[in-house]
Specification:
By secondary structure, the chain is mainly beta. It has no helices and 28 strands. About 0% of the residues lie in helices and about 50% in strands. The strands form seven sheets. It has a four-stranded antiparallel beta sheet, with no helix packed on it. A four-stranded antiparallel beta sheet has the order 2-3-4-5, with no helix packed on it. The two termini are about 20 Å apart. It is found in: Nucleus. InterPro entries: WD40/YVTN_repeat-like_dom_sf, WD40_repeat_dom_sf, WD40_rpt. This is Nucleoporin Nup43.
């Protein structure tokens, strides 16, 4: 159901599907009237995964433009204005270039495929593409951190892959996010975060151990985001409704935005279930009249108990959507941040248009 208590609630359009929607992302468009989406589907009746590009009409109907069937179910999906990366539960990575291509041909076949036990063994927990670059970082449950350099000019192949770190199964990674062309952050079990610098190879250069949860839960990081203008601060969401920020300038204490922490600052717990995704929300302006570099900017989250909401440090959360099923993923349209797309566990896609 929609949240009706808001002064101006968003318009919500639901588009039923006949398959499970694993992940969904907006694709950049040259026109505000020609919106497109890339969607990772899974047909539970036939155990068939698919990666599809759809156009979204002004009347909120979807039209299939292109489709590709990966050999395994999609575990993570990321896009930049020129690249698409999709990882799988079988440990493979597939990358596509959108530069100079019509959307009807983008996912006809991957231009770079990275497969085999030398890459990942088991599910890839997360991938991320460098903005404006051609590097893809991947992390897996096997404890491996890999860097793939993509070359797309007339190139089809395996990509230039190198191992950044191998935990040999002693650690497990579930999320990753670039912070700069040489730095990225990983997350995994125990609400732990690791900051990596490719200029200083061998191990993470900074590490946050999430022992602040008072031992109530082991905790897993499901999603990470980093604001382009505040690359020293990492936003993370995970188990038990926990959303927090990790500031490299004060590495020992997290800034709790939702959930239970040991700090004395007041937090508003929005959900007690897993937070599947977090993203900074550029559409919402901070309620603080003086925004300091230490204040966490507004962020959007989705959760296992069906909540899509905006949270801000020290403020009551703003619920945008409350569903009777999990909201598995969402994406904010970077070209028009008032538009949000969500994938619902009950085989449906929701489009929100904020006033």
């Amino acid at each position: 159901m929609e949240i009706t208590g808001l002064p101006q609630p968003p318009q919500v359009h639901r588009i039923p599907q006949f398959r499970y929607v694993d992940s969904i992302r907006w694709l950049p468009s040259i026109s505000p009237f020609q919106k497109s989406l890339i969607v990772a589907f899974f047909d539970t009746d036939t155990s068939t995964p698919s990666l599809e590009i759809h156009s979204l009409s002004p009347s909120k109907t979807l039209s299939l433009l292109s489709c590709w069937n990966p050999p395994s179910r999609i575990s993570s999906l990321k896009c930049t204005p020129s690249l698409i990366a999709a990882s799988t539960f079988s440990g493979s990575l597939y990358c596509f270039s959108t530069a100079g291509k019509s959307l009807e041909s983008v996912v006809a076949e991957p231009q770079v495929s990275v497969v085999g036990r030398d890459f990942h063994v088991g599910p890839i927990g997360g991938v991320d593409l460098m903005e404006g670059g051609s590097d893809c970082v991947s992390v897996g449950e096997d404890g491996r951190v890999n860097l793939v350099k993509l070359g797309f000019e007339g190139y089809h192949g395996k990509g230039n892959c190198r191992r950044v770190f191998d935990g040999n199964g002693l650690v497990s990674y579930t999320a990753v996010r670039w912070a700069s062309p040489t730095e990225f952050v990983t997350g995994g079990c125990g609400f732990g975060l690791q900051w990596w610098d490719l200029r200083r190879p061998g191990s993470a250069v900074a590490q946050f151990k999430g022992n602040w949860d008072q031992g109530t839960t082991s905790g897993i990081i499901h999603s990470i985001d980093i604001h382009p203008s505040r690359k020293h601060t990492c936003l993370a969401g995970g188990s038990s409704g926990t959303v927090f920020a990790w500031d490299l300038r004060w590495q020992q204490e997290p800034i709790i935005l939702s959930g239970v922490g040991t700090n004395e600052n007041k937090t508003h717990s929005l959900s007690e279930s897993d937070v599947w995704e977090v993203q900074y929300d550029s559409y919402i302006k901070s309620s603080s009249s003086s925004i300091s570099s230490s204040r966490i900017l507004p962020a959007m989250i989705c959760s296992e108990d069906g909540i899509l909401a905006v949270i801000e440090q020290g403020e009551e959360p703003l619920e945008l959507l409350a569903e009777p099923c999990a909201i598995n993923s969402f994406d904010i349209d970077r070209q028009n941040p008032s538009d949000v797309v969500c994938s619902l566990e009950w085989e449906s896609i929701a489009i929100l248009s904020r006033p």
